[in-house]
Amino acid sequence: MALTAQTVKHIQPAEKLTKKADGGGLFLWVHPNGAKYWRWRDYLAGKEKLLAIGVYCGPTQYDEKGAPLPSTIQMGLKEAREARDAAKRLQDDGKDPSKERAEAKRLAHVSTKNSLEAVAREWHHKNLAKWVPDHATRILRRFEMDVFPHIGSEPVDALKTHHLLVVLRKVEARGSLDVAGRLQQHLVAVMRYAVQTGRISTNLALDLQGALIVPEKQHRAALPLNQLPELVDRINNYHGRLLTRAALRLTLLTFLRSSELRMARWGEIDFERGIWTIPPTREAIEGVRYSNRGTKMKTAHVVPLSRQALAVLQEIHPLTGRFELIFAGNSDVTKPMSENTINKSLRNLGYDTQADVCGHGFRTMACSALNESGLWSKDAIERAIERQMSHVERNSVRAAYIHKAEYLSERRLMMQWWADFLDAQNPHTYIEPSEFAKLRNDSAATWR
């Protein structure tokens, strides 16, 4: 007799596997643990074939915490009969239902594996080793917020350039131009990975070039050089915390990034050689955001220190030398000074950090002075300053000729000239870079 829905529901397990026939080769297998599975038995080319149709009620499974997982989707009697009839039709067409099902599963798996989300996550995982955790998290978060919800399920070989552009336009429309630009770069990289792994033959994301609005370059506020004497005088006469004045002076002398300066450890300073070695990463400080940051390019970075820069460090060594951090916080020496310290102190000195000068603007001022000195070529200055800012040479041919000293001698000359130039500024008289160069007749002229 054919089964009924109620019969199937109330069949109880026995000590051994029992089989309840429905007709047309369809059976319900009832296991001793209570699991019930649909099976279809038929013959193909004279051989008995048994096909797994589906699960009526599988055994309860549990996660690692012991909580029951959602049960397997039930296939009722009606659905089981429909699946049996579909298998019979395939057999009537001379096809093997089991092979057809295996192929369907394979194609479904390939489709899922080749979705944009799957490829992007695979690409992301492959690159984790070369990214710091914060950066890796930001990249994946951008995809999860702005890409996956819209086209993440689409196979990469079905995507066109305009599909990618529609997603980027949504980000652009809300005013997040920088995020849109970075997502474009990420999509190019993901699609390149798809080409490399054989999913697609052409990287259509490359055609996105020029399609987005380019955000205006943010220029850091910097003073004209003729206002340097007043700036130097105000810093030297700063009446606030001694460490804050030292941080201002050291930033002006070295124009390093705020995080590189604030998170600095005394162990990074070599007073004898006049060298500051900033590591790729630093030991994280509990409760301090980005405290593990070292250099921007994640390679050890050597910074030559002028005599004046060393003097600043020697001046504050009695204050914080017994601690790990050079610029220890005022209330907690295990944590660094605030990330707003430099710009806040500049505002206290009477400067508008948006229009007049900010900590980032010190680099612009140094470049201008070095250029106007006439002692070095523009290319030499840019090359040395880029190294001072820990930018890694991206041109592989040119990079092959960069020696381990990282232009250290050249940079040392420039940094010392810049420090001496600052010292030469009288509060009431501005000395131009070219004039100071003639007065000094510095040996740096050999680098022209």
UniProtKB/TrEMBL annotation:
Molecular function as annotated in GO: DNA binding
Entry-linked PROSITE patterns: TYR_RECOMBINASE (PS51898)
Example GO BP: DNA recombination
Listed Basic and acidic residues bias regions: 82-106
Segments forming domain Tyr recombinase: 218-415
Domain of life, source organism: Bacteria
Keywords of this entry: DNA integration, DNA recombination, DNA-binding
One Pfam family from the record: Phage_integrase
Gene3D superfamilies assigned: 1.10.150.130, Integrase, DNA-binding domain, Intergrase catalytic core
Keyword Zinc-finger among UniProt keywords: no
Sequence segments annotated as region (Disordered): 82-107
Segment forming the signal sequence: none
Family to which the UniProt record says this protein belongs: Belongs to the 'phage' integrase family.
Protein's UniProt name: Integrase
UniProt source species: Chromobacterium sphagni
